[in-house]
Amino acid sequence: MVQIRTAAWRAAYAGLVDAEVLAGLPEEASERYVRHLAEHPDLELTLVAEKGPYVIGFAVFTWDRTEAREEGAGPGVPGEVQMIYVHPDHWSRGAGRALLREGERWLTEQGLLPIRVWEMEGSEASHRFYTRYGFVPDGERRTAEISGAVLPCARLALPKDHQVDD
């Protein structure tokens, strides 16, 4: 999963994030995060996409971390697509959509609505992926710091009437 996350970042954010930052993405940080997921399975849903014997992508769904800190986690707190990464060799073949569809089902079953996602501003591939699924910008913005780079992010949300497709 570490290699998928790193490859996806390097492909999706080339031109948006300094090439040196992308080249030096700290794989140990990804490894720490993967260990965190394994140690806290009750906090999130982690899904993987496979092709044959190979993992080609993964996604993590949870409650909106900002609102959960303020209100406590549980039903009534918005859900969050924390991350979806598919190896670039497998983009536009349905793996990301399948991961998102299953995550939406789980978040809906947990009562974690509406469902939100943060995307890096300027990432056309990311924006196209989420808006084709039905997400719309909700006007919220923030910055994220990755390896010293400050990156502008925008939040998108699924409309309340969105239907999970099959």
TrEMBL record:
<keyword id="KW-0808">Transferase</keyword>
<dbReference type="Pfam" id="PF00583">
    <property type="entry name" value="Acetyltransf_1"/>
</dbReference>
<feature type="domain" description="N-acetyltransferase">
    <location>
        <begin position="2"/>
        <end position="165"/>
    </location>
</feature>
<dbReference type="InterPro" id="IPR050680">
    <property type="entry name" value="YpeA/RimI_acetyltransf"/>
</dbReference>
<dbReference type="InterPro" id="IPR000182">
    <property type="entry name" value="GNAT_dom"/>
</dbReference>
<dbReference type="InterPro" id="IPR016181">
    <property type="entry name" value="Acyl_CoA_acyltransferase"/>
</dbReference>
<keyword id="KW-0012">Acyltransferase</keyword>
<protein>
    <submittedName>
        <fullName>GNAT family N-acetyltransferase</fullName>
    </submittedName>
</protein>
